[in-house]
Amino acid sequence: MSANQEMRQQAELLREFVHEGCSKDKSDELQQLLACIEAWEQEPQRLEELRRLQEENAKLKENLKKLRAAQQTKDTAYMSSRLRDALRE
How far is CA 57 from CA 10, 44, 63, 72, 80, in A? Predict the structure, then answer.
């Protein structure tokens, strides 16, 4: 059984326990507790998504760095040729 399946099974057991143990007059607390169980159950997926987004962010930062360096080199080369043209005149 995978860790994800095990977590879902544990979450389902928790839900059953909460439904059996809570009285009807505490429905707000029941809903809050069930929301916490749902969040706990989804934690592995959220952590995986966070890891993926962090990797993507790092790649984007690296691409931006390369593009800025290329643009700076292009600007420097352009200015040098303009300066050479001005000196020829």
Answer: 33, 20, 10, 22, 34
